């Protein structure tokens, strides 16, 4: 009887240890959990998989959509900058094609959406718009930048985040999306975390637009949108 009771206690101990281990693994899965391992992390951004806007735009051939989920850990002290950089023949435009800034929410944490909308216009008059749940900017015409799409050759849009999203530190600039146009082939498989690989991509394509984000931390207590 003592041996049976001892065996039961051992099995319960092993089962309890496995539960604790599994709980720890699950709580650490993904970047959108409530507690962050890195205290310097100010935000997490990931591809928004809850909406099908991108598929709808593609199916109707009316444009492209890049939608992201953004979680701010210190939203009451955070300011978000998101912008589109343009490159022609490897040379960067002096000013962003479009830029949006917003932030300083009344609560400490915030979960919301942010992204880029590209509308195909008549007579090659394409436009882009940046948006969040609280603000937006655009539509801005980009036809002069991209030129005649009928002569563009190959085009491609892709998210440049990892499968588990991207962790952001205060003041850190991150590349979250890329659009390319090239009369030649379009190479895939770039390491978007490698600045040299990104630069190689820019130099290898006729027209490039990069969607970037930065979250700054401010000390002022003034709230604005």
Summed up:
The chain is built from four helices and twelve strands, in the order αβαβββββββαβββαβ. It has helices spanning 2-27, 53-60, 143-146, 195-203, and strands at 43-47, 63-72, 78-88, 91-92, 98-103, 110-119, 127-132, 136-141, 154-159, 166-168, 173-182, 207-217.
What's the topology here?
Blueprint: H1 2-27, E1 43-47, H2 53-60, E2 63-72, E3 78-88, E4 91-92, E5 98-103, E6 110-119, E7 127-132, E8 136-141, H3 143-146, E9 154-159, E10 166-168, E11 173-182, H4 195-203, E12 207-217
Antiparallel strand pairs: 1-2, 1-10, 2-6, 3-4, 3-5, 3-12, 6-7, 7-8, 9-11, 11-12
Keyword list:
alpha+beta, 6-stranded antiparallel sheet
Describe this structure in words.
The chain is α+β, with helices and mostly antiparallel strands. It contains four helices and twelve strands, in the order αβαβββββββαβββαβ. It is 21% helix and 38% strand. A six-stranded antiparallel β-sheet has the order 8-7-6-2-1-10, with helices on one face. Strands 3, 4, 5, 9, 11 and 12 form a six-stranded antiparallel β-sheet that branches. A hairpin with a 2-residue loop joins strand 3 and strand 4. The radius of gyration is 22 Å and the shape is globular.
Shape from CA axes? globular
Q: Estimate the strand proportion.
A: 35-45%
H/I helix tally: 4
Order of helices and strands: HEHEEEEEEEHEEEHE
- Output the radius of gyration: 22 Å
Helix content: 10-25%
Biggest β-sheet description: 6 strands, antiparallel
Average pLDDT: 81
Give the total of beta strands. 12
Give me the secondary-structure category: alpha+beta
Uncertain residue ranges: 2-30
N- and C-termini, Cα separation: 70 Å
Spatial order of the strands forming the largest sheet: 8-7-6-2-1-10
